[in-house]
Amino acid sequence: MKKHPYLQYLFLIVLSTLFISCKETTNYQYIVNLPQHFQGAPVVFMLHGYGSSAENFKADTHFEQEANARGYAVIYLTSTDAGWSAGAGADKNDDVKAICALAKSIQKEFHFDKKRMYVAGFSNGGFMTHRLVVEGKGTFAGGICVAGDMSKTVWKSRKSKTKVSFFQISGEKDDAVPKISNGTAKYAYDPAIEDVMEYYATSNRLNFDAPEVQKIGYGSTLTKYTGDKSKKQVWHLLVKDGHHAWPSVTFNNIETNNLILDFLDTQK
């Protein structure tokens, strides 16, 4: 069916403006969700948590619904193992190389905007997101991590600067994300999330000492680091009383999907 690579997509887009397709390439299964006008569109690659899958992550977040409506393509990936090789242990697979290669291949196939390719992940997928933006050689313009951190291995081997935009969402009571604010970083193996945010902000020469801080939801704190001479932005949402979870309207009064898209819209 290589003769007409877009025929099936265009036909279904006319019917519903949304098409979901399962494929398998380089041992990854993935789900494609397209906006009505997908050529030249930005794209977000979604990485599930440990033991999950593309199908489950899609069912849990429904990120594609808001994203497609706002002009973003969304690709959910399934790991070849239970989790991603995010740097926390021995690497069974070279996920950095493979995911970057797959992202570039998909971008060329659908003619997405290669300057606006992003990666987002939850938990283990969030750890992998940090690794991809640090070690992915500029494949991704930015990352979104929910309930994850940068592993110590990636932190210790990082370059002096990583010039990407980044949005970190951390639960106040999530022990998987070490924090200086509550003292958990003192005894943690991985770096404090505040130090990771400072790294991204200073890499882009953003105003780390004078951020914009606002309260959202049920007392959660959203901190935004911006700069006068840079389009890059670094955001950190600390979810009040939040645990290891994707924040929701029900429990946190936070529309996480739209907040992520608001962040990505700053990069236009």
UniProtKB/TrEMBL annotation:
GO terms for biological process: proteolysis; xylan catabolic process. It comes from Treponema bryantii. The lineage of its organism: Bacteria, Pseudomonadati, Spirochaetota, Spirochaetia, Spirochaetales. PROSITE patterns: PROKAR_LIPOPROTEIN (PS51257). PANTHER family: FERULOYL ESTERASE C-RELATED, PTHR38050. This is Poly(3-hydroxybutyrate) depolymerase. InterPro entries: AB_hydrolase_fold, FaeB/C/D, Peptidase_S9_cat. Keywords: Carbohydrate metabolism, Hydrolase, Polysaccharide degradation, Secreted, Signal, Xylan degradation. Residues 86-160 form the Peptidase S9 prolyl oligopeptidase catalytic domain. The keyword Secreted applies. GO terms for cellular component: extracellular region. GO terms for molecular function: feruloyl esterase activity; serine-type peptidase activity. It is found in: Secreted. Transmembrane segments: none annotated. Pfam families: Peptidase_S9.
